[in-house]
Amino acid sequence: MEVGNVITEAGNAALRKTGDWRTQRPITDTEKCNKCSLCWLHCPDAAIKPLEDGYYESDLFYCKGCGICAKVCPKGAITMIEEEEK
C-alpha cells in the first residue's frame, strides 16, 4: 500500500501536496452555480478558491475529497466523482 504525504511539523501543511489521498474529486457545474460562496466558506482545507468571475474552483493540490462542498451547495452544482487510478 502506498503511503500518503506525512506532515511531521505543525504549520507546514501548505508546503505539502495534501490532496494525494483523496478518493473522490469535486466537479462544479457553472450552469447551476449561483456564486453563493457556501462551498468556499465550509471547505475545511481552504481548497476552494474564488475566481475573478465570481465562481469558485477546487484546488486539487489541497482538496482531500471530503465532499462537504457538494453537501452544502444549495443548487447541487458540485458533484463528487471517483478519483482516477494513478
The gist of it:
This protein has 86 residues and is of the alpha+beta class. It has two helices and four strands. The two termini are 13 Å apart.
Please characterize this protein's 3D structure.
The protein is an alpha+beta fold. It has a domain at 34-86: 2-Layer Sandwich (Alpha-Beta Plaits), CATH 3.30.70. The chain has helices at 38-42, 68-72; strands at residues 24-28, 48-50, 56-58, 78-82. The strands form two sheets. Strands 1-4 form a two-stranded antiparallel sheet. The chain is globular and about 40 Å long. The relative contact order is 0.28.
Output the CATH class name of the domain at 34-86: Alpha Beta
Helices and strands, in order, run as EHEEHE
Mean pLDDT: 87
Placed side by side, the strands forming the largest sheet appear as: 1-4
- Number of helical segments with 4 or more residues: 2
The 3D shape can be described as globular
Q: How large, in whole angstroms, is the Cα Rg?
A: 14 Å
Uncertain runs? none
Distance between the termini: 13 Å
β-strand amount: 15-25%
- The helix-and-strand class reads alpha+beta
CATH topology of the domain at 34-86: Alpha-Beta Plaits
Any key phrases for this structure?
single chain, Alpha-Beta Plaits, alpha+beta, two-stranded antiparallel sheet, 86 residues, two-stranded antiparallel ribbon, 2 helices
How do the helices and strands line up, and which of them pair or pack?
Layout: E1 24-28, H1 38-42, E2 48-50, E3 56-58, H2 68-72, E4 78-82
Antiparallel strand pairs: 1-4, 2-3
